[in-house]
Predict the structure.
Amino acid sequence: MFTSNPFAELSASISPAIMQAYVAIMMLLVVGGTLFDIIHKRSATYFFANWRTSKSKARQQVGGGKMLSLAVQSAVVDVLASGEFCNMKRRLAHLLGMYGFVLYVVATIAMVFWYPIPATPTPSYWPLLWWLGALMICVGGYWFWFFIRVDVAAEGQSPFRIMRADLFILSLVISATLGLIWAYLQAEGSGWSTVALGLYLIATTVLFGSIPWSKFSHMFFKPAAALEKRVSKANGTAQNLPTLTRDDPEQRKRHSMELLQKAPMRMGLGIKREAPRHY
Ligand code: HEM
């Protein structure tokens, strides 16, 4: 089951051309949905306006070499290592979801386009990566959904309270879950695999079709925002935000001690308070 291509098996009832057309449409929805999101939210306009302001207000100019090192730091720390998350559990859940998604998507594209029928034998690592990717999305996604996200962990809300903001995370984990259930039922030769396939296609179409209204395109925005944050810190504008960063514990401790000394007792800072938990 884990080393056989589920899409090649499916080609007995659905032609590879239809499967390839479906995946191509999903790719177009990602491009179209993200562009619509950028134009609709004017994210690109704000991003470049911020970039220009930061450059014009810079206390020190960031040269080409420095810019390159900031871009590499951003790519490695903020993107590949999800370094923006202070909370280690949240970071791990995000890494599982992110790398799982990449493996799952790449393996799906490889199996549907390069090995669509049993006559073109699929190297066993592709189905293995597909199962592993989908499982990682489920582990990272359900861990985040039921145990880590703010409303549940800090505000004690029911994990079954659903809001529009949850469209991305929910359609992502439900699509991956139904994909695993369909592939398992198909491998078992169960008649229910057709029902599972239908539900899997609906969830996947919602995941890629709802991009203008979900958090999906954050995976393209966040890297740009992370780089902008690093550049503005390097040129001293720091987006007019306080320059205290997680990676400067000495400055943070000094700052909170200053706050404590300054704050009048009535602000309740005298008493032992629960440590803040960053998500
Ligand atoms: C490539 C695939 C990616 C997947 C599958 C993914 C998945 C997720 C999920 C499920 C969430 C939680 C959404 C929610 O709060 O409902 C999230 C949040 C977040 N992701 Fe990603 N992500 C990806 C890429 C990235 C990249 C490339 C970055 C950064 C550079 C990033 C940075 C973040 C940040 C900072 C949040 C927290 C946003 C917030 O709480 O508002 N993600 N991501």
The chain has eleven helices and no strands. Residues 78-79, 84, 94, 97-98, 101-102, 166, 168-169, 172, 215, 218-219, 222-223, 226 surround protoporphyrin IX containing FE (CB under 6 Å).
